[in-house]
Amino acid sequence: MDLNEQVCQKLISESKLKEHIDEKRAMDYLRLIQDMFRSYYLTVSSDSSLPDLVSGYEHQLSQVLDMMIYGILEEDSSKKGEK
To answer: What pLDDT, in 10s, does the model give residues 27-42?
Structure first.
């Protein structure tokens, strides 16, 4: 298991998932999104130097991870309406 998977697994195990989402399904979803992002990023960034490619990927991946995590976790009722 790579570092991204470890981080995702820890977050999933410590979070309340939506009723219809189990841990396996959540991990499958996160892997799929990460793989799609990696493929997309490598395609659109093919002209970048390796250091720029890695830096940009890491920066954008953190944003994508944030969006994809909150797409599967139950929203905290105390935070509803704050968005």
So the answer is: 998 888 888 888 888 8
